[in-house]
Amino acid sequence: MTDIEVALTDLGEIATRELAKEHKPYGLKQNQEIAKRGGKIAKITKDNLEKELGRSVISNKNSLNYQYIDEKLLEDKK
Q1: Of the residues 36, 45, 49, 60, which has the fewest C-beta atoms closer than 10 A?
Q2: Number of H helices, E strands in the chain
Q3: Residue 55 region, left (φ>0) first, then alpha (ψ -120 to 50), else beta?
Q4: What is the model's pTM?
Q5: What are the distances in angstroms from CA 61 to CA 4, 32, 67?
């Protein structure tokens, strides 16, 4: 994921959390509706950014640094 993708994911999650605090959903159906509304906020933001940039902000990159992860695992085993 790119920084933009991470930020959009965070935005969707934060928006959902704030909507849940405000509307206090009860049960699965109401919580699903709140989650959809939070996701829609992130989608609208993504669409607006892509329109301004003239390109997609979604990539197939993986932002994890596997070399660092492998090195860290080796250190932890010592």
Answers
A1: 60
A2: 3, 0
A3: beta
A4: 0.73
A5: 12, 29, 15
